[in-house]
Design brief:
The protein is an alpha+beta fold. Helix content is 21%, strand content 26%. The protein is built from five helices and 13 strands. The chain has a six-stranded mixed beta sheet with strand order 3-6-8-9-10-11, covered by helices on one side. Strand 9 and strand 10 form a beta hairpin. It is globular and about 50 Å long. The two termini are 24 Å apart. The C terminus is likely disordered.
Length: 219
């Protein structure tokens, strides 16, 4: 994750004012504001393929997808001008079902994500797997599915919330694989996700060990 803009802790209200007055995107984590880094061509291609695939499948349904320019809150519902707690992040793709729940009248912070999908980058992978996912588990009860997509080899990891609050884990590594997301009646084809993406020669030689549940600890 990028270096914070300052070592000073800012309130949520200050962060939201900065965001709403800027053309840049910033991530907020417990009082610290981080500038969002640029993306690689591979990342941009996968994100576009993802948005087209999911958006097309959701047409006419009660669920809707928004791209990486929309914030999601993962934190306590406290007064923004009095707290520095919480995470405000930009998923590469977020899906909500039914009416969107917003933080306030600005309608730029979503509170009820159902599915979050991240395309991993070297600078953000540890955060996406760790603290970010933990915040989603703890503060977004509407979230049913969390998916991580590699940009260096065919690989999609899918975490699904179970009825008891635990998370199951599924991995897809073959380019011919398809990832079902029953909660939103969608399927992600790896062929479509990685269309026009070129991998290094050794990419297909790096298997990942399959597990049964989230490595971050289920809530």
């Amino acid at each position: 994750m990028a270096t914070p803009q300052s070592q000073i802790l800012f309130t949520v209200a200050h962060y939201l004012r900065v965001e709403r007055q800027s053309n840049e995107r910033y991530l907020y984590l417990d009082g610290e504001i981080y500038a969002m880094a640029g993306e690689s061509p591979q990342h941009a291609t996968i994100c576009m393929n993802l948005a087209v695939s999911v958006g097309t499948q959701l047409k006419g349904s009660r669920c809707q997808a928004w791209s990486k320019d929309f914030k999601v809150r993962s934190g306590p519902a406290t007064q923004p001008d009095k707290t520095t707690r919480g995470l405000y992040s930009y998923p590469d793709l977020v899906v909500f079902c039914g009416a969107p729940a917003f933080l306030d009248e600005h309608r730029d912070v979503l509170l009820n994500p159902a599915v979050v999908i991240e395309v991993l980058s070297p600078s953000t992978e540890a955060f996406d797997r760790g603290e970010k996912f933990l915040r989603y588990q703890n503060w977004n009860p509407s979230l049913t599915d969390y998916l991580l997509i590699s940009q260096t080899r065919p690989l999609v990891e899918h975490f699904i919330r179970q009825l008891d609050g635990s998370w199951s884990y599924h991995v897809y590594q073959a380019i011919t694989d398809a990832v079902p997301i029953p909660a939103i009646d969608c399927t992600l084809s790896l062929v479509e996700l990685y269309d026009r993406v070129e991998f290094p020669p050794e990419a297909e030689e790096l298997p990942i060990e399959e597990e049964n549940e989230s490595p971050h600890g289920a809530k």
